[in-house]
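Section 3.1: Structural characterization of target chains.
Under the original work plan, the team committed to producing a structural model for every single-chain target entering the pipeline before any wet-lab resources were allocated. The record below documents one such target. The sequence was received from the expression subgroup and is listed exactly as submitted; it comprises 270 residues.
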Amino acid sequence: MNAVLDIDRVRFRYGGDWVLTDVAFAVAAGAFLGIIGPNGSGKTTLLKVMNGLLRPQAGAVRLNGRPLAGMRRREVARVMAVVPQDAALLFTFTVEEMVLMGRSPHLGRFGFEGMGDFRIARAAMDRTGVLALAHRPYDTLSGGEKQRVLIARALAQEPRILLLDEPTAYLDIRHQAGIFDLMKDLNRRQGLTVVAVTHDINLAALYSDEVLLLSDGCVFGAGPPEAVVTAENIRGAYGIGVLVDSHPATGLPRVTPAGYAGGGGPDPAP
């Protein structure tokens, strides 16, 4: 496997308790990896460690075989882009201005955008369906529109790896499908490596080539959706019984809470 990201026995803690413990896995070039797990399992922290925003107390992250800790932020940003859940802004920016921010790692000494940067930004907006919103203030957009703008900003970086933190949080089912369809299309057509943290197990199973299941900061399962998204694994990681069957259109795993009638309620507290 040609790994573009190698996470080698990473351990991380904010204070006294470990948030990540001996997390190890690799992401192949052109893969679509879905990271799932219950609240507090370490998903967002892991994404920040993968991007170099947090430095682990033990273990290492390697980007294309090079230790991430030894690389400059500008160098990393030319290869890897991050899409957050939302962007906290102190000032009002138009959509075009937001997307142009993605060009920062490629700008010269004085940080001025050229015509080429504008062309790349507009192409990213066109690719994500927000070109018509170019002159709209970002903070007036809907949740789905904002998410597409943030993806356009990431694409304007011209990365080879895209990390997304809960890209469909707070979106309705139509916009959830639209965002994941877009990600899968970029993955297939452009060979973009995609790593997406999501609470939605079914979306992860449907769109991902590989799934990483976290529980209490440890890797509980890793592999193809069929091997990871099982009733046994979900109960073990989430503490709730589920029914897992095959999606009628794709044959991939589909998860439904079993409910109390099926004996699938939350496991009792110890």
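DSSP finds nine helices and twelve strands in the chain.
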